[in-house]
Design brief:
The protein has about 290 residues and is of the alpha+beta class. It is about 20% helix and about 25% strand. The termini are far apart.
């Protein structure tokens, strides 16, 4: 089946469709040995498409897998050493790459897929898709610490974190469980924020990526996504972090008060009734009409 080149490149993991269009414009993409043109289509089953001389792989069935990554496992398809990776935990053939990486010592939901376009959509900062975490800190946070985390914290590299939803869940010994929902994912961000606020992080469990939830999965368990889950992840209704506007409120209009010099309608009606001559006042039932 023929598809536009930028879509094929995006699915292969070369970035967004817009970025892949730039590859074509720059002359880095070839179809069957000839320079590609913007808007051109190809079928990877019969056509040879290359980017910088590297051929795109033949199409394979798209796979979408939810995995509970345990601690002390790398969030990578291939590791730099002999440590175990998330790819090692899924014994199925084909290419699978993690979406939404977790630190080596963190755990929870990882999406494994070969859909490069969806991967870019869920991980690129400009989309701001929500990620939800359950975090155990070594000390019980006070209101000021929670508020500071919600507003954003300046990290050691000078970057300020975006506002996040942070809520206390329950106490745990001398520490506490808190819920953190954010739309970005800088390296070791949650641990760095906790350290700066005096709340050392003991454990991090990711519960959700966009609309996809960890559910009942246990460490090292995995499952294929349902068709509904895949459609929701690809849809436009994926939860995103809202940026609150700081527009000033319009000033309130002053209330008009009645004074003696400006009587209200009820007083005016009463005054008119008192001023009516007695002959105009009705003292009994209305006279019957003569037939």
């Amino acid at each position: 089946m023929q598809e536009r080149l930028q879509k094929l490149l995006a699915q292969a993991g070369y970035g967004s469709r817009r970025a892949c269009e730039e590859f074509i414009i720059e002359g880095r993409v070839f179809v069957n040995g000839k320079p590609a043109e913007l808007g051109q289509k190809a079928d990877l089953a019969v056509d040879r498409v290359t980017v910088d001389g590297k051929a795109l792989a033949k199409p394979e069935t798209m796979a979408y897998i939810a995995l509970y990554k345990p601690r002390n496992v790398l969030s990578a398809a291939e590791g730099p050493d002999d440590r175990q990776t998330v790819r090692d935990l899924i014994p199925v053939p084909g290419h699978l790459y993690p979406v939404g990486r977790l630190d080596y010592d963190s755990e929870g939901l990882i999406l494994m897929t070969n859909d490069g376009e969806l991967t870019n959509k869920l991980t690129h900062p400009r989309f701001g898709h929500e990620k939800e975490y359950r975090v155990l800190v070594a000390r019980r946070p006070d209101t000021e610490q929670i508020d500071a985390w919600r507003r954003g914290v300046v990290l050691p590299d000078g970057d300020r974190t975006q506002p996040a939803h942070v809520h206390f869940i329950s106490s745990s010994g001398k520490g506490a469980w808190i819920r953190v929902v954010m739309g970005e994912g800088k390296k070791r961000q949650i641990r760095e924020i906790g350290k700066l606020l005096g709340l050392p992080v003991v454990r991090i469990i990711r519960l959700r990526i966009g609309t996809l939830k960890l559910g009942d999965l246990k460490p090292r368990q995995w499952r294929y996504l349902t068709e509904d889950e895949i459609r929701e992840l690809k849809g436009e209704n994926v939860p995103k972090m809202e940026q609150k506007s700081m527009k000033p409120r319009p000033p309130r209009r002053p209330m008009q008060r009645t004074t003696d010099s400006t009587p209200n309608r009820r007083n005016e009606s009463a005054s008119r009734r008192r001023a009516e001559p007695a002959s105009q006042k009705r003292t009994g039932p209305s006279p019957k009409r003569r037939k």
